[in-house]
Amino acid sequence: MPATLPDTSELLLSLGTATGLGLLVGLQREWVQNRVAGIRTFALLTLFGALIGLLGNAYGAWAVAAGFIAFAAIVVFGGWLGLGTREPDSGMTTEMAMLVMFSTGIITMLGERLIAVMIAGGVMVLLQSKKALHAMVRHFGEDDLRAIARLVLLGLVILPALPNRAMGYLGVLNPFAIWLIVVLIVGISLAAYMAEKYLGGSKGSVLAGVLGGLVSSTATTASSARRSSTAATGSMSLAAMALIASAMAFVRLLAEVVIVASDHLRELLPPLIAMMLWVALIAAVSYRFAEKADSQPVDEHPPSELKNAVFLGLLYALVLVIVAYTREHSSSSGLYLAAFLSGLPDMSAITLSTSRLVTTGNLETSIAWRMILVGGMANLCFKMVFVIALGSRAYIKPALLGLLLSVAGGAAILALWP
Q: Model-level pTM?
Protein backbone atom coordinates (compact mmCIF):
# COMPACT_ATOMS: atom_id res chain seq x y z
CA MET A 1 0.00 0.00 0.00
CA PRO A 2 1.39 3.45 -0.87
CA ALA A 3 2.82 5.43 2.01
CA THR A 4 1.29 8.68 3.19
CA LEU A 5 2.50 11.64 1.15
CA PRO A 6 3.82 14.76 2.89
CA ASP A 7 1.43 17.67 3.36
CA THR A 8 1.11 20.23 0.59
CA SER A 9 3.35 22.89 2.13
CA GLU A 10 6.22 20.48 2.76
CA LEU A 11 5.82 18.99 -0.70
CA LEU A 12 5.90 22.38 -2.42
CA LEU A 13 8.90 23.49 -0.34
CA SER A 14 10.89 20.39 -1.31
CA LEU A 15 9.96 20.70 -4.99
CA GLY A 16 10.80 24.40 -4.98
CA THR A 17 14.14 23.74 -3.29
CA ALA A 18 15.04 21.10 -5.88
CA THR A 19 14.12 23.39 -8.76
CA GLY A 20 16.07 26.31 -7.30
CA LEU A 21 19.17 24.22 -6.76
CA GLY A 22 18.97 22.94 -10.32
CA LEU A 23 18.74 26.52 -11.58
CA LEU A 24 21.76 27.46 -9.45
CA VAL A 25 24.06 24.81 -10.91
CA GLY A 26 22.55 25.19 -14.39
CA LEU A 27 23.40 28.89 -14.31
CA GLN A 28 27.08 28.01 -14.14
CA ARG A 29 26.84 25.34 -16.84
CA GLU A 30 25.03 27.77 -19.16
CA TRP A 31 28.28 29.64 -19.80
CA VAL A 32 30.38 26.58 -20.69
CA GLN A 33 31.36 26.11 -24.31
CA ASN A 34 30.03 22.94 -25.97
CA ARG A 35 27.77 22.40 -22.99
CA VAL A 36 25.77 19.22 -22.66
CA ALA A 37 23.14 20.72 -20.36
CA GLY A 38 22.20 24.24 -19.38
CA ILE A 39 20.05 26.05 -16.85
CA ARG A 40 16.71 24.56 -17.92
CA THR A 41 18.04 21.01 -18.17
CA PHE A 42 19.60 21.09 -14.72
CA ALA A 43 16.44 22.52 -13.20
CA LEU A 44 14.32 19.83 -14.82
CA LEU A 45 16.59 16.91 -13.93
CA THR A 46 16.83 18.02 -10.28
CA LEU A 47 13.05 18.38 -10.19
CA PHE A 48 12.83 14.93 -11.80
CA GLY A 49 15.01 13.60 -8.97
CA ALA A 50 12.66 15.15 -6.41
CA LEU A 51 9.69 13.48 -8.06
CA ILE A 52 11.50 10.15 -8.06
CA GLY A 53 12.18 10.64 -4.35
CA LEU A 54 8.49 11.32 -3.84
CA LEU A 55 7.59 8.11 -5.67
CA GLY A 56 10.18 6.24 -3.62
CA ASN A 57 8.57 7.44 -0.40
CA ALA A 58 5.19 6.29 -1.69
CA TYR A 59 5.98 3.00 -3.45
CA GLY A 60 9.37 1.85 -2.19
CA ALA A 61 12.98 1.57 -3.34
CA TRP A 62 12.08 -0.01 -6.69
CA ALA A 63 10.69 3.36 -7.84
CA VAL A 64 14.03 5.06 -7.09
CA ALA A 65 15.92 2.30 -8.94
CA ALA A 66 13.63 2.71 -11.94
CA GLY A 67 14.23 6.46 -11.83
CA PHE A 68 18.00 6.00 -11.89
CA ILE A 69 17.67 3.67 -14.88
CA ALA A 70 15.51 6.19 -16.70
CA PHE A 71 17.94 9.01 -15.87
CA ALA A 72 20.92 6.97 -17.11
CA ALA A 73 19.09 6.17 -20.35
CA ILE A 74 18.36 9.86 -20.94
CA VAL A 75 21.99 10.84 -20.33
CA VAL A 76 23.35 8.09 -22.59
CA PHE A 77 20.89 8.93 -25.34
CA GLY A 78 21.63 12.63 -25.09
CA GLY A 79 25.37 11.97 -25.20
CA TRP A 80 24.93 9.78 -28.29
CA LEU A 81 22.98 12.53 -30.07
CA GLY A 82 25.68 15.11 -29.33
CA LEU A 83 28.64 12.81 -29.95
CA GLY A 84 29.67 14.48 -33.17
CA THR A 85 29.63 18.01 -31.77
CA ARG A 86 31.65 17.44 -28.60
CA GLU A 87 35.37 18.05 -28.26
CA PRO A 88 37.51 14.87 -27.85
CA ASP A 89 38.84 15.98 -24.44
CA SER A 90 35.59 17.43 -23.07
CA GLY A 91 35.47 14.88 -20.25
CA MET A 92 32.49 13.79 -18.17
CA THR A 93 32.19 16.75 -15.80
CA THR A 94 28.71 17.83 -16.85
CA GLU A 95 27.35 14.28 -16.84
CA MET A 96 28.67 13.70 -13.32
CA ALA A 97 27.20 17.02 -12.20
CA MET A 98 23.87 15.93 -13.65
CA LEU A 99 24.04 12.67 -11.70
CA VAL A 100 24.85 14.50 -8.46
CA MET A 101 22.03 16.98 -8.97
CA PHE A 102 19.57 14.21 -9.79
CA SER A 103 20.53 12.54 -6.51
CA THR A 104 20.27 15.91 -4.76
CA GLY A 105 16.70 16.20 -5.97
CA ILE A 106 15.94 12.85 -4.33
CA ILE A 107 17.56 14.05 -1.07
CA THR A 108 15.20 17.03 -0.90
CA MET A 109 12.30 14.59 -0.63
CA LEU A 110 13.93 12.77 2.28
CA GLY A 111 13.61 15.83 4.52
CA GLU A 112 17.31 16.76 4.20
CA ARG A 113 16.94 20.07 2.38
CA LEU A 114 19.93 21.67 4.16
CA ILE A 115 22.23 18.88 3.01
CA ALA A 116 20.85 19.26 -0.51
CA VAL A 117 21.60 22.98 -0.47
CA MET A 118 25.16 22.34 0.75
CA ILE A 119 25.74 19.73 -1.96
CA ALA A 120 24.43 21.97 -4.74
CA GLY A 121 26.49 24.92 -3.51
CA GLY A 122 29.59 22.75 -3.43
CA VAL A 123 28.91 21.49 -6.95
CA MET A 124 28.60 25.02 -8.30
CA VAL A 125 31.79 26.19 -6.60
CA LEU A 126 33.66 23.12 -7.85
CA LEU A 127 32.48 23.63 -11.41
CA GLN A 128 33.36 27.33 -11.34
CA SER A 129 36.85 26.63 -9.93
CA LYS A 130 38.05 24.71 -12.96
CA LYS A 131 40.77 27.17 -13.98
CA ALA A 132 42.02 27.72 -10.45
CA LEU A 133 42.16 23.98 -9.72
CA HIS A 134 43.95 23.20 -12.99
CA ALA A 135 46.46 25.99 -12.36
CA MET A 136 47.12 24.64 -8.86
CA VAL A 137 47.64 21.10 -10.18
CA ARG A 138 50.14 22.37 -12.75
CA HIS A 139 52.29 23.62 -9.85
CA PHE A 140 52.51 20.10 -8.42
CA GLY A 141 55.39 17.78 -9.13
CA GLU A 142 56.02 14.13 -8.37
CA ASP A 143 57.54 14.99 -4.99
CA ASP A 144 54.45 17.01 -4.09
CA LEU A 145 52.12 14.14 -4.97
CA ARG A 146 54.29 11.78 -2.93
CA ALA A 147 53.97 14.12 0.07
CA ILE A 148 50.19 14.28 -0.36
CA ALA A 149 50.02 10.49 -0.62
CA ARG A 150 52.03 10.22 2.61
CA LEU A 151 49.56 12.47 4.40
CA VAL A 152 46.63 10.45 3.03
CA LEU A 153 48.27 7.26 4.31
CA LEU A 154 48.80 8.73 7.76
CA GLY A 155 45.46 10.47 8.15
CA LEU A 156 42.94 8.47 6.13
CA VAL A 157 44.35 4.94 6.30
CA ILE A 158 46.31 4.50 9.54
CA LEU A 159 44.52 6.98 11.83
CA PRO A 160 40.97 5.54 11.53
CA ALA A 161 42.34 2.03 12.20
CA LEU A 162 43.79 2.96 15.60
CA PRO A 163 41.77 2.42 18.80
CA ASN A 164 40.29 5.66 20.12
CA ARG A 165 40.22 4.89 23.83
CA ALA A 166 42.32 5.58 26.92
CA MET A 167 44.82 2.93 27.95
CA GLY A 168 48.26 2.56 29.48
CA TYR A 169 49.63 4.25 32.58
CA LEU A 170 46.87 6.06 34.49
CA GLY A 171 44.68 5.75 31.41
CA VAL A 172 46.23 8.77 29.69
CA LEU A 173 47.52 7.10 26.51
CA ASN A 174 45.17 7.13 23.53
CA PRO A 175 46.70 5.64 20.33
CA PHE A 176 44.31 7.60 18.12
CA ALA A 177 45.11 10.90 19.84
CA ILE A 178 48.86 10.23 19.78
CA TRP A 179 48.89 9.40 16.07
CA LEU A 180 46.71 12.44 15.42
CA ILE A 181 49.66 14.53 16.58
CA VAL A 182 51.77 12.94 13.83
CA VAL A 183 49.06 13.69 11.26
CA LEU A 184 48.76 17.30 12.45
CA ILE A 185 52.49 17.93 12.19
CA VAL A 186 52.81 16.42 8.71
CA GLY A 187 49.61 18.16 7.59
CA ILE A 188 50.64 21.59 8.87
CA SER A 189 54.05 21.27 7.20
CA LEU A 190 52.50 20.22 3.89
CA ALA A 191 49.86 22.95 4.03
CA ALA A 192 52.49 25.63 4.63
CA TYR A 193 54.63 24.33 1.77
CA MET A 194 51.69 24.15 -0.64
CA ALA A 195 50.54 27.65 0.31
CA GLU A 196 54.00 29.05 -0.38
CA LYS A 197 54.29 27.21 -3.70
CA TYR A 198 50.83 28.24 -4.85
CA LEU A 199 51.44 31.89 -3.92
CA GLY A 200 54.75 31.91 -5.79
CA GLY A 201 57.26 31.65 -2.95
CA SER A 202 58.33 33.84 -0.03
CA LYS A 203 59.53 37.27 -1.09
CA GLY A 204 59.91 38.95 2.29
CA SER A 205 60.47 38.31 5.93
CA VAL A 206 56.76 38.51 6.76
CA LEU A 207 55.67 35.71 4.44
CA ALA A 208 58.79 33.67 5.19
CA GLY A 209 58.22 34.04 8.94
CA VAL A 210 54.53 33.21 8.73
CA LEU A 211 55.06 30.08 6.65
CA GLY A 212 58.15 29.07 8.61
CA GLY A 213 56.23 29.47 11.86
CA LEU A 214 53.54 27.15 10.58
CA VAL A 215 56.11 24.51 9.70
CA SER A 216 58.49 24.94 12.66
CA SER A 217 59.41 28.18 14.34
CA THR A 218 62.48 26.54 15.88
CA ALA A 219 63.72 25.33 12.49
CA THR A 220 63.01 28.77 11.00
CA THR A 221 65.06 30.43 13.73
CA ALA A 222 67.98 28.07 13.14
CA SER A 223 67.76 28.60 9.38
CA SER A 224 67.66 32.39 9.65
CA ALA A 225 70.61 32.33 12.07
CA ARG A 226 72.70 30.24 9.67
CA ARG A 227 71.87 32.50 6.75
CA SER A 228 72.83 35.60 8.73
CA SER A 229 76.36 34.25 9.18
CA THR A 230 76.87 33.99 5.40
CA ALA A 231 74.82 36.94 4.10
CA ALA A 232 76.47 40.32 3.73
CA THR A 233 73.21 42.17 4.37
CA GLY A 234 69.73 41.49 5.65
CA SER A 235 70.53 40.45 9.23
CA MET A 236 67.76 42.64 10.64
CA SER A 237 65.23 41.17 8.20
CA LEU A 238 66.34 37.67 9.12
CA ALA A 239 65.94 38.48 12.81
CA ALA A 240 62.45 39.81 12.09
CA MET A 241 61.70 36.60 10.22
CA ALA A 242 62.61 34.52 13.28
CA LEU A 243 60.48 36.67 15.59
CA ILE A 244 57.50 36.53 13.20
CA ALA A 245 57.86 32.74 13.15
CA SER A 246 57.72 32.71 16.96
CA ALA A 247 54.56 34.82 16.89
CA MET A 248 53.00 32.40 14.40
CA ALA A 249 53.97 29.53 16.68
CA PHE A 250 51.80 31.07 19.40
CA VAL A 251 48.98 31.43 16.86
CA ARG A 252 49.33 27.72 16.14
CA LEU A 253 49.40 27.08 19.89
CA LEU A 254 46.06 28.87 20.26
CA ALA A 255 44.60 26.84 17.38
CA GLU A 256 45.67 23.61 19.05
CA VAL A 257 44.03 24.62 22.32
CA VAL A 258 40.81 25.52 20.49
CA ILE A 259 40.74 22.15 18.72
CA VAL A 260 41.57 19.95 21.71
CA ALA A 261 39.95 21.82 24.63
CA SER A 262 37.04 23.64 23.02
CA ASP A 263 34.91 23.42 26.17
CA HIS A 264 37.41 25.34 28.33
CA LEU A 265 38.36 28.27 26.10
CA ARG A 266 37.13 30.98 28.47
CA GLU A 267 39.62 29.89 31.14
CA LEU A 268 42.53 28.90 28.87
CA LEU A 269 42.65 31.45 26.05
CA PRO A 270 42.89 34.98 27.60
CA PRO A 271 46.43 34.73 29.06
CA LEU A 272 47.65 32.82 26.00
CA ILE A 273 46.16 35.45 23.68
CA ALA A 274 47.93 38.13 25.72
CA MET A 275 51.23 36.32 25.20
CA MET A 276 50.59 35.91 21.48
CA LEU A 277 49.80 39.62 21.09
CA TRP A 278 52.96 40.56 23.02
CA VAL A 279 55.20 38.42 20.81
CA ALA A 280 53.39 39.67 17.70
CA LEU A 281 54.00 43.28 18.80
CA ILE A 282 57.71 42.59 19.23
CA ALA A 283 57.82 40.94 15.79
CA ALA A 284 55.98 43.89 14.22
CA VAL A 285 58.39 46.40 15.74
CA SER A 286 61.40 44.38 14.56
CA TYR A 287 59.99 44.21 11.05
CA ARG A 288 59.38 47.95 11.14
CA PHE A 289 63.10 48.48 11.70
CA ALA A 290 63.93 45.98 8.95
CA GLU A 291 61.63 47.31 6.21
CA LYS A 292 64.54 48.70 4.19
CA ALA A 293 66.87 45.76 4.84
CA ASP A 294 67.67 43.13 2.22
CA SER A 295 66.16 39.68 2.60
CA GLN A 296 66.45 36.41 0.73
CA PRO A 297 63.55 34.11 -0.18
CA VAL A 298 63.39 30.93 1.86
CA ASP A 299 64.05 27.92 -0.35
CA GLU A 300 61.53 25.21 0.53
CA HIS A 301 61.20 21.65 -0.70
CA PRO A 302 58.34 19.21 -0.22
CA PRO A 303 58.36 18.58 3.54
CA SER A 304 59.63 15.26 4.80
CA GLU A 305 58.47 15.60 8.38
CA LEU A 306 57.52 11.99 9.11
CA LYS A 307 60.49 11.13 11.31
CA ASN A 308 60.25 14.38 13.24
CA ALA A 309 56.47 13.97 13.51
CA VAL A 310 56.76 10.43 14.87
CA PHE A 311 59.37 11.63 17.36
CA LEU A 312 57.08 14.43 18.49
CA GLY A 313 54.20 11.96 18.77
CA LEU A 314 56.31 9.80 21.06
CA LEU A 315 57.31 12.92 22.98
CA TYR A 316 53.64 13.79 23.28
CA ALA A 317 52.93 10.37 24.77
CA LEU A 318 55.89 10.72 27.13
CA VAL A 319 54.64 14.12 28.24
CA LEU A 320 51.24 12.63 29.00
CA VAL A 321 52.84 10.03 31.26
CA ILE A 322 55.20 12.54 32.93
CA VAL A 323 52.41 15.01 33.59
CA ALA A 324 50.09 12.28 34.89
CA TYR A 325 52.81 10.86 37.15
CA THR A 326 53.79 14.30 38.44
CA ARG A 327 50.17 15.17 39.04
CA GLU A 328 49.73 11.94 40.95
CA HIS A 329 52.83 12.14 43.14
CA SER A 330 53.91 15.76 43.54
CA SER A 331 52.75 19.35 43.73
CA SER A 332 52.02 21.71 40.88
CA SER A 333 55.67 22.85 40.75
CA GLY A 334 56.63 19.47 39.32
CA LEU A 335 54.16 19.98 36.51
CA TYR A 336 55.84 23.23 35.53
CA LEU A 337 59.22 21.48 35.35
CA ALA A 338 57.73 18.87 33.03
CA ALA A 339 56.18 21.65 30.95
CA PHE A 340 59.51 23.47 30.66
CA LEU A 341 61.46 20.37 29.63
CA SER A 342 58.93 19.20 27.07
CA GLY A 343 58.51 22.71 25.63
CA LEU A 344 62.20 23.12 24.80
CA PRO A 345 62.14 21.45 21.34
CA ASP A 346 58.55 22.31 20.43
CA MET A 347 55.48 23.86 22.03
CA SER A 348 52.97 21.51 20.44
CA ALA A 349 53.65 18.51 22.68
CA ILE A 350 52.97 20.27 25.98
CA THR A 351 50.08 22.26 24.47
CA LEU A 352 48.25 19.26 23.05
CA SER A 353 48.91 16.93 25.96
CA THR A 354 47.93 19.52 28.57
CA SER A 355 44.79 20.49 26.65
CA ARG A 356 43.90 16.83 26.41
CA LEU A 357 44.25 16.41 30.18
CA VAL A 358 41.97 19.41 30.71
CA THR A 359 39.36 17.87 28.40
CA THR A 360 39.42 14.57 30.30
CA GLY A 361 39.14 16.34 33.66
CA ASN A 362 42.61 15.31 34.88
CA LEU A 363 44.03 18.85 35.13
CA GLU A 364 42.68 22.21 36.28
CA THR A 365 42.55 25.01 33.73
CA SER A 366 44.38 27.42 36.05
CA ILE A 367 47.39 25.10 36.06
CA ALA A 368 47.00 24.08 32.40
CA TRP A 369 47.41 27.53 30.82
CA ARG A 370 50.42 28.24 33.02
CA MET A 371 52.01 24.95 31.94
CA ILE A 372 51.38 25.82 28.28
CA LEU A 373 52.87 29.27 28.76
CA VAL A 374 55.92 27.84 30.55
CA GLY A 375 56.39 25.44 27.64
CA GLY A 376 56.19 28.35 25.18
CA MET A 377 58.73 30.33 27.17
CA ALA A 378 61.05 27.30 27.25
CA ASN A 379 60.87 27.09 23.47
CA LEU A 380 61.81 30.76 23.20
CA CYS A 381 64.82 30.09 25.43
CA PHE A 382 65.79 27.11 23.27
CA LYS A 383 65.78 29.35 20.18
CA MET A 384 68.27 31.65 21.89
CA VAL A 385 70.80 28.83 21.71
CA PHE A 386 70.56 28.79 17.89
CA VAL A 387 70.67 32.58 17.72
CA ILE A 388 73.89 32.77 19.74
CA ALA A 389 75.55 29.68 18.27
CA LEU A 390 74.74 30.22 14.57
CA GLY A 391 73.96 33.90 14.05
CA SER A 392 76.15 36.77 12.95
CA ARG A 393 76.89 39.64 15.26
CA ALA A 394 74.43 41.90 13.43
CA TYR A 395 71.76 39.23 13.73
CA ILE A 396 72.28 38.22 17.35
CA LYS A 397 71.50 41.61 18.88
CA PRO A 398 67.95 42.16 17.46
CA ALA A 399 66.96 38.47 17.52
CA LEU A 400 68.20 37.88 21.06
CA LEU A 401 66.63 41.12 22.30
CA GLY A 402 63.28 40.18 20.79
CA LEU A 403 63.33 36.70 22.32
CA LEU A 404 64.36 38.05 25.74
CA LEU A 405 61.55 40.60 25.67
CA SER A 406 59.12 37.82 24.71
CA VAL A 407 60.22 35.68 27.66
CA ALA A 408 59.99 38.70 29.97
CA GLY A 409 56.42 39.30 28.83
CA GLY A 410 55.55 35.67 29.54
CA ALA A 411 57.06 35.93 33.00
CA ALA A 412 54.99 39.04 33.70
CA ILE A 413 51.81 37.24 32.63
CA LEU A 414 52.65 34.31 34.91
CA ALA A 415 53.27 36.61 37.84
CA LEU A 416 50.46 39.13 37.41
CA TRP A 417 47.59 37.26 35.79
CA PRO A 418 44.86 36.54 38.34
A: 0.55
Cα(223)–Cα(407) distance, integer angstroms: 21
Residues 39 and 166 both lie in one domain:
no
Provide the domain limits for residue 82.
8-135
The dihedral formed by the CA atoms of 378, 382, 388 and 394, expressed in degrees to the nearest 10: -70
Regarding whether 130 and 148 lie in a shared domain, the answer is: no
Q: How far apart are CA 375 and CA 337, in angstroms?
A: 9
* 309 closest CA partner among 179, 196, 123, 413: 179
Residue 126, phi then psi, degrees to nearest 5: -65, -40
Q: What angle do CA 235, 237, 241 make, to 5 degrees?
A: 115
Average pLDDT over residues 389-393: 85
Count of the separate structural domains present in the chain = 2
Residue 2 located in a structural domain: no
Query: pLDDT averaged over the chain?
Result: 78
120 and 202 housed in the same domain:
no
- Residue 180, classified by CB atoms within 10 Å of its CB into exposed (0-12), middle (13-18) or buried (19+), is buried
CA 176, 181, 187, 191 torsion-angle sign: positive
The Cα–Cα gap between 343 and 375 comes to 4
249-273, pLDDT tens digit by residue? 999 999 989 988 888 899 899 999 9
Q: Are residues 118 and 159 in the same domain?
A: no
- Tens-place pLDDT, residues 89-105: 455 777 788 888 888 88
Domain boundary among 120, 135, 150: 135
